[in-house]
Amino acid sequence: MKNLTIGLFGFGVVGEGIYQVLQDKPGLNCQIKKICIKDISKRRNGPAAFFTDDASEILNDPEINVVVELINDATVAFQLVKKALQSGKSVVSANKKMIAENHSKLIRLQAQHKVSLLYEAAVCGSIPIIRNLEEYFDNDMLSQVSGIVNGSTNYILTKMASGQKSYAEALKEAQSSGFAESDPTLDVNGTDAVHKLSIIALHAFGKFVDHKQILSKGITALSAADFQFAKEKGLKIKLLANATTTKNGANEQHHAVFPTFVKAESTLSQVDNEYNGVLVGSSLADEQFLYGKGAGRFPTASAVLSDISALRYNYKYEFRKGTSTASKTDNLSFGTYYIGFDKDEKIDLLIFSKVHEQYSNGKRAYVIGDIKNEHLKKIDFWKKDSISIIAFGFNL
Ligand SMILES: NC(=O)c1ccc[n+]([C@@H]2O[C@H](COP(=O)([O-])OP(=O)(O)OC[C@H]3O[C@@H](n4cnc5c(N)ncnc54)[C@H](OP(=O)(O)O)[C@@H]3O)[C@@H](O)[C@H]2O)c1
User: Fold this and answer.
1) 140 lies in which domain range?
2) Which residues of the chain have pLDDT under 50?
């Protein structure tokens, strides 16, 4: 078993968590040697000798063989991780934005320098989804990975569905309970889920998916009328990240993040508040479900710890399913969507290849119909904040 000497970047929610956890586990043969933070003047819960604001004290220290990157700046994080890999240090990171934006470059770097980059904590906190997709679901043909991968938005949707809270009130409560960041933009507009989905897609199907090409909308446009519709039909609204292969196999895929109607009795519908849940569909095993805490100090630290521990036996992602670029996405697939809007809004019904239902109550209106996903990419009226778009997570 390898002895690990760790340089830690970041001492915030997760960084301090992993520091505390490692202090309690001396038997792991992992010692933190240095901690680099941004503001050296802040008071820290740890001996002053650990702390520096000079990244080179970690990056240029030949004794440090593992960098644990837990900072909140994706641009700086990429530079730090790049230098660490180039210096022959393995890296553990929880930074989904940094990974999604630089995934192919990072994988090339780890291969070139024969080191390991692990990032289980970047996707669904404590849920071991990446390593499961890498190792366990290696041979069984996966057809779909579909999940609630963002705890803040799930918390807000749960509170809105109970009918007691508006979006603004639910967001405020999520922030005061520590389930949403003070700037929640990337969570509520769906970007955080898009980042996670692009990482999942590579490990599930062996295909790079450009996160900028993923169809998505967050939860900010959802109205009380949409929740009323869901309640009347026995449905719940969940923000789902979904990667599906079409009948033509892994080369043709649909990736999307949308508020989605799920049946009240479905598995994903039971995932409430800040929890995350991921359904993995495969040809032999049918459906598997992973559930747990997607964020927070210790749940996230548990995934970071698992990655650190795996480095003791030189574990690395092998990408046995490949690392090629998805050649066709969304070409053939159709989705069934609910589009909700104020009655004065003009919706072109020609976007639907089939309309299932239409309704207007003089104030708010909706249309439910099938839309070719490729077509959705070419139009953008549905991105407006006055229009809600909700996918159906089941066949109508
Ligand atoms: N919080 C969660 O539940 C959670 C869950 C999954 C993944 N993540 C990911 O984990 C990472 C850390 O999140 P967090 O919530 O722990 O963030 P956080 O509480 O905001 O802490 C960020 C830390 O990064 C340090 N930092 C910022 N810029 C730096 C720089 N240029 N050089 C060195 N240190 C720098 C800050 O230093 P100062 O202390 O001096 O300000 C702070 O200690 C992020 O990528 C986040 O997306 C978080």
Assistant:
1) 129-299+325-392
2) none
